Amino acid sequence: MPLPLGFTGARLDRADQLRSDSARFGAARADPRARCLLLDGIDCVPGEGGGLCWEPLDPADDRALMLLGLDDAGIPHFVREAAPGARIDARSRTVMRLLPLLSAEEVALYGGARSLVDWHARHRFCAVCGTPTEVFRAGWGRRCGSCNAEHFPRVDPVVIMLAECDGRVLIGRQGGFPPGFFSALAGFVEPGESLEEAVARELFEEAGIRVSDVTYVASQPWPFPSSLMIGCRAVATDPALTLDTTEIEAAMWVDKAEVRAALAGDMGAPFLAPPPLAIARYLLEDWAG
Would the pTM count as exceeding 0.90? Predict the structure, then answer.
Protein backbone atom coordinates (compact mmCIF):
# COMPACT_ATOMS: atom_id res chain seq x y z
CA MET A 1 0.00 0.00 0.00
CA PRO A 2 1.37 3.47 -0.89
CA LEU A 3 2.65 5.38 2.13
CA PRO A 4 2.41 7.97 3.43
CA LEU A 5 -1.04 9.30 2.70
CA GLY A 6 -1.21 12.96 1.77
CA PHE A 7 -1.18 15.35 4.75
CA THR A 8 0.18 12.62 7.06
CA GLY A 9 3.71 12.09 8.32
CA ALA A 10 4.60 15.36 10.07
CA ARG A 11 7.57 14.63 12.31
CA LEU A 12 7.34 17.51 14.78
CA ASP A 13 6.85 16.57 18.42
CA ARG A 14 3.52 18.26 19.22
CA ALA A 15 4.92 19.03 22.71
CA ASP A 16 1.62 18.85 24.55
CA GLN A 17 3.52 19.31 27.82
CA LEU A 18 4.32 22.90 26.80
CA ARG A 19 0.75 23.86 26.03
CA SER A 20 -0.39 24.13 29.65
CA ASP A 21 2.93 25.33 31.08
CA SER A 22 3.17 29.09 30.60
CA ALA A 23 6.80 29.22 31.72
CA ARG A 24 7.96 26.55 29.27
CA PHE A 25 5.85 28.05 26.50
CA GLY A 26 7.42 31.44 27.22
CA ALA A 27 10.87 29.88 27.03
CA ALA A 28 9.99 28.34 23.65
CA ARG A 29 8.90 31.76 22.39
CA ALA A 30 12.15 33.28 23.61
CA ASP A 31 14.30 30.62 21.98
CA PRO A 32 16.46 32.47 19.39
CA ARG A 33 16.22 29.42 17.12
CA ALA A 34 12.39 29.54 17.03
CA ARG A 35 10.81 29.65 13.59
CA CYS A 36 7.40 30.86 12.42
CA LEU A 37 5.60 29.51 9.35
CA LEU A 38 4.80 32.23 6.83
CA LEU A 39 1.26 32.01 5.43
CA ASP A 40 -0.78 34.13 3.05
CA GLY A 41 -4.06 34.01 4.94
CA ILE A 42 -4.12 30.22 5.26
CA ASP A 43 -2.31 29.41 2.01
CA CYS A 44 1.33 28.38 2.10
CA VAL A 45 4.07 30.64 0.80
CA PRO A 46 6.86 28.84 -1.06
CA GLY A 47 10.39 29.40 0.14
CA GLU A 48 13.35 30.11 -2.11
CA GLY A 49 14.13 26.41 -2.43
CA GLY A 50 10.53 25.47 -3.08
CA GLY A 51 9.69 24.27 0.44
CA LEU A 52 7.78 25.99 3.22
CA CYS A 53 8.88 29.50 4.18
CA TRP A 54 10.00 29.90 7.81
CA GLU A 55 10.98 33.17 9.47
CA PRO A 56 12.41 34.17 12.86
CA LEU A 57 9.82 35.32 15.38
CA ASP A 58 9.09 39.02 14.91
CA PRO A 59 8.71 40.67 18.36
CA ALA A 60 6.79 43.52 16.74
CA ASP A 61 4.06 41.16 15.50
CA ASP A 62 1.42 41.00 18.23
CA ARG A 63 -0.72 38.30 16.62
CA ALA A 64 -1.21 35.20 18.77
CA LEU A 65 1.38 32.47 18.36
CA MET A 66 0.36 28.83 18.05
CA LEU A 67 2.89 26.14 18.84
CA LEU A 68 3.12 23.52 16.09
CA GLY A 69 5.80 21.54 17.92
CA LEU A 70 9.50 20.86 18.34
CA ASP A 71 11.80 19.32 15.75
CA ASP A 72 14.46 16.69 16.49
CA ALA A 73 16.87 19.42 17.62
CA GLY A 74 14.29 20.87 20.02
CA ILE A 75 13.71 23.98 17.87
CA PRO A 76 10.19 25.38 18.41
CA HIS A 77 8.03 25.86 15.32
CA PHE A 78 5.08 28.25 15.40
CA VAL A 79 2.38 29.71 13.21
CA ARG A 80 0.53 32.97 13.90
CA GLU A 81 -3.17 33.66 13.73
CA ALA A 82 -4.30 35.28 10.50
CA ALA A 83 -3.79 39.01 10.15
CA PRO A 84 -6.90 41.19 10.56
CA GLY A 85 -8.72 41.42 7.26
CA ALA A 86 -6.84 38.47 5.73
CA ARG A 87 -8.83 36.50 3.17
CA ILE A 88 -9.71 33.12 4.69
CA ASP A 89 -11.15 30.78 2.10
CA ALA A 90 -11.01 27.33 3.67
CA ARG A 91 -12.29 25.59 0.54
CA SER A 92 -9.96 27.30 -1.89
CA ARG A 93 -8.02 24.83 -3.99
CA THR A 94 -5.51 27.37 -5.31
CA VAL A 95 -2.99 26.00 -2.82
CA MET A 96 -3.01 22.71 -4.74
CA ARG A 97 -0.58 24.13 -7.30
CA LEU A 98 1.91 24.87 -4.50
CA LEU A 99 1.72 21.54 -2.67
CA PRO A 100 3.80 19.65 -5.28
CA LEU A 101 6.69 21.96 -4.35
CA LEU A 102 6.68 20.54 -0.82
CA SER A 103 7.97 17.28 0.61
CA ALA A 104 5.44 14.83 2.06
CA GLU A 105 6.47 15.87 5.58
CA GLU A 106 6.03 19.57 4.74
CA VAL A 107 2.60 18.92 3.24
CA ALA A 108 1.56 17.25 6.49
CA LEU A 109 2.95 20.05 8.64
CA TYR A 110 1.33 22.72 6.51
CA GLY A 111 -2.03 20.91 6.55
CA GLY A 112 -2.15 20.93 10.33
CA ALA A 113 -1.12 24.58 10.54
CA ARG A 114 -3.69 25.57 7.91
CA SER A 115 -6.54 23.88 9.77
CA LEU A 116 -5.47 25.41 13.09
CA VAL A 117 -5.27 28.96 11.74
CA ASP A 118 -8.61 28.53 9.96
CA TRP A 119 -10.27 27.26 13.15
CA HIS A 120 -9.13 30.31 15.11
CA ALA A 121 -10.37 32.63 12.36
CA ARG A 122 -13.83 31.08 12.61
CA HIS A 123 -14.10 30.86 16.40
CA ARG A 124 -13.36 34.34 17.64
CA PHE A 125 -16.57 34.45 19.68
CA CYS A 126 -17.84 32.20 22.44
CA ALA A 127 -20.45 29.70 21.26
CA VAL A 128 -22.08 29.86 24.71
CA CYS A 129 -22.50 33.59 25.34
CA GLY A 130 -21.17 35.36 22.24
CA THR A 131 -18.34 37.19 23.99
CA PRO A 132 -15.02 37.55 22.12
CA THR A 133 -12.60 34.77 23.09
CA GLU A 134 -8.84 34.78 23.62
CA VAL A 135 -6.21 32.27 22.53
CA PHE A 136 -4.76 30.08 25.27
CA ARG A 137 -2.99 26.75 25.71
CA ALA A 138 -0.22 27.65 23.25
CA GLY A 139 -2.77 28.22 20.50
CA TRP A 140 -4.66 24.96 20.99
CA GLY A 141 -7.74 26.51 22.53
CA ARG A 142 -9.77 29.66 23.05
CA ARG A 143 -11.19 30.83 26.37
CA CYS A 144 -14.14 33.10 27.05
CA GLY A 145 -13.38 35.84 29.55
CA SER A 146 -17.06 36.26 30.39
CA CYS A 147 -18.43 32.77 31.05
CA ASN A 148 -15.08 30.92 31.23
CA ALA A 149 -16.11 28.43 28.55
CA GLU A 150 -13.19 26.75 26.83
CA HIS A 151 -13.22 25.81 23.15
CA PHE A 152 -10.79 23.50 21.36
CA PRO A 153 -10.01 22.78 17.70
CA ARG A 154 -12.20 20.08 16.20
CA VAL A 155 -12.12 17.92 13.12
CA ASP A 156 -15.14 16.80 11.11
CA PRO A 157 -15.27 13.02 10.49
CA VAL A 158 -16.06 12.10 6.87
CA VAL A 159 -16.48 8.57 5.55
CA ILE A 160 -15.16 7.98 2.04
CA MET A 161 -15.77 4.55 0.60
CA LEU A 162 -15.65 2.10 -2.26
CA ALA A 163 -18.65 -0.20 -2.59
CA GLU A 164 -17.75 -3.47 -4.32
CA CYS A 165 -20.03 -5.78 -6.27
CA ASP A 166 -19.10 -8.64 -8.61
CA GLY A 167 -15.48 -7.57 -8.97
CA ARG A 168 -16.23 -3.91 -9.60
CA VAL A 169 -16.28 -0.79 -7.41
CA LEU A 170 -18.57 2.22 -7.49
CA ILE A 171 -17.23 5.68 -8.29
CA GLY A 172 -19.13 8.91 -8.83
CA ARG A 173 -18.80 12.58 -9.69
CA GLN A 174 -20.36 15.86 -8.60
CA GLY A 175 -21.35 18.58 -11.00
CA GLY A 176 -18.39 20.78 -10.06
CA PHE A 177 -15.76 18.14 -10.85
CA PRO A 178 -13.52 18.57 -13.91
CA PRO A 179 -14.78 16.75 -17.04
CA GLY A 180 -14.22 13.02 -16.81
CA PHE A 181 -13.15 13.10 -13.14
CA PHE A 182 -14.62 10.42 -10.85
CA SER A 183 -13.87 9.60 -7.23
CA ALA A 184 -15.02 7.54 -4.28
CA LEU A 185 -18.33 8.55 -2.70
CA ALA A 186 -18.11 10.37 0.64
CA GLY A 187 -20.21 12.06 3.31
CA PHE A 188 -20.07 13.52 6.81
CA VAL A 189 -20.69 11.31 9.81
CA GLU A 190 -23.84 12.47 11.59
CA PRO A 191 -24.46 12.60 15.36
CA GLY A 192 -25.62 9.29 16.77
CA GLU A 193 -24.19 6.96 14.13
CA SER A 194 -21.14 4.72 13.82
CA LEU A 195 -18.72 4.80 10.92
CA GLU A 196 -20.28 1.64 9.53
CA GLU A 197 -23.74 3.16 9.72
CA ALA A 198 -22.51 6.36 8.05
CA VAL A 199 -21.02 4.36 5.15
CA ALA A 200 -24.25 2.44 4.63
CA ARG A 201 -26.44 5.54 4.90
CA GLU A 202 -24.38 7.67 2.52
CA LEU A 203 -24.21 4.95 -0.14
CA PHE A 204 -27.95 4.43 0.04
CA GLU A 205 -28.76 8.16 0.05
CA GLU A 206 -26.43 9.05 -2.83
CA ALA A 207 -26.52 5.90 -4.97
CA GLY A 208 -29.52 3.89 -3.76
CA ILE A 209 -27.50 0.78 -2.94
CA ARG A 210 -27.58 -1.38 0.18
CA VAL A 211 -24.25 -2.56 1.59
CA SER A 212 -22.88 -4.88 4.25
CA ASP A 213 -19.45 -5.97 5.55
CA VAL A 214 -18.11 -2.44 6.00
CA THR A 215 -14.38 -2.50 6.72
CA TYR A 216 -11.91 0.23 7.61
CA VAL A 217 -8.92 0.83 5.30
CA ALA A 218 -7.09 4.04 6.30
CA SER A 219 -7.63 7.64 7.39
CA GLN A 220 -6.33 11.01 6.27
CA PRO A 221 -6.56 14.58 7.58
CA TRP A 222 -7.96 16.86 4.87
CA PRO A 223 -7.45 20.56 5.69
CA PHE A 224 -10.26 21.96 3.50
CA PRO A 225 -11.14 23.15 6.07
CA SER A 226 -10.62 20.50 8.77
CA SER A 227 -11.89 17.03 8.00
CA LEU A 228 -10.72 13.56 8.91
CA MET A 229 -11.33 11.33 5.90
CA ILE A 230 -12.04 7.77 7.02
CA GLY A 231 -11.53 5.36 4.15
CA CYS A 232 -13.66 2.24 4.03
CA ARG A 233 -14.87 -0.57 1.80
CA ALA A 234 -18.28 -2.19 1.70
CA VAL A 235 -20.01 -4.98 -0.19
CA ALA A 236 -23.12 -4.12 -2.22
CA THR A 237 -25.91 -6.67 -2.50
CA ASP A 238 -27.30 -5.29 -5.80
CA PRO A 239 -25.51 -3.10 -8.40
CA ALA A 240 -28.68 -1.25 -9.50
CA LEU A 241 -28.23 2.50 -8.90
CA THR A 242 -30.71 5.21 -7.99
CA LEU A 243 -28.78 8.47 -7.84
CA ASP A 244 -29.56 11.51 -5.75
CA THR A 245 -28.84 14.00 -8.51
CA THR A 246 -28.61 16.87 -6.04
CA GLU A 247 -25.44 15.20 -4.73
CA ILE A 248 -24.18 12.94 -7.54
CA GLU A 249 -24.18 13.89 -11.21
CA ALA A 250 -23.13 10.45 -12.45
CA ALA A 251 -21.82 7.16 -11.10
CA MET A 252 -20.56 3.91 -12.58
CA TRP A 253 -19.12 0.54 -11.67
CA VAL A 254 -15.53 -0.06 -12.83
CA ASP A 255 -13.36 -3.18 -12.75
CA LYS A 256 -9.70 -3.48 -11.79
CA ALA A 257 -8.41 -3.15 -15.36
CA GLU A 258 -10.32 0.12 -15.78
CA VAL A 259 -9.11 1.44 -12.44
CA ARG A 260 -5.51 0.55 -13.24
CA ALA A 261 -5.78 2.31 -16.59
CA ALA A 262 -7.10 5.47 -14.90
CA LEU A 263 -4.38 5.38 -12.23
CA ALA A 264 -1.77 5.05 -14.96
CA GLY A 265 -3.21 8.03 -16.83
CA ASP A 266 -4.01 6.01 -19.95
CA MET A 267 -5.79 8.04 -22.62
CA GLY A 268 -8.35 5.26 -23.10
CA ALA A 269 -9.29 5.00 -19.42
CA PRO A 270 -13.01 5.48 -18.68
CA PHE A 271 -12.37 8.19 -16.07
CA LEU A 272 -9.79 10.57 -14.62
CA ALA A 273 -8.46 9.34 -11.28
CA PRO A 274 -8.17 11.44 -8.09
CA PRO A 275 -4.81 13.19 -7.50
CA PRO A 276 -2.02 11.51 -5.51
CA LEU A 277 -2.68 13.50 -2.31
CA ALA A 278 -6.29 12.30 -2.02
CA ILE A 279 -7.29 9.25 0.00
CA ALA A 280 -9.71 8.37 -2.81
CA ARG A 281 -6.72 7.52 -4.97
CA TYR A 282 -5.21 5.53 -2.11
CA LEU A 283 -8.44 3.49 -1.87
CA LEU A 284 -8.43 2.80 -5.60
CA GLU A 285 -4.75 1.84 -5.62
CA ASP A 286 -5.22 -0.45 -2.66
CA TRP A 287 -8.24 -2.17 -4.22
CA ALA A 288 -6.77 -2.48 -7.71
CA GLY A 289 -3.47 -3.72 -6.33
Answer: yes
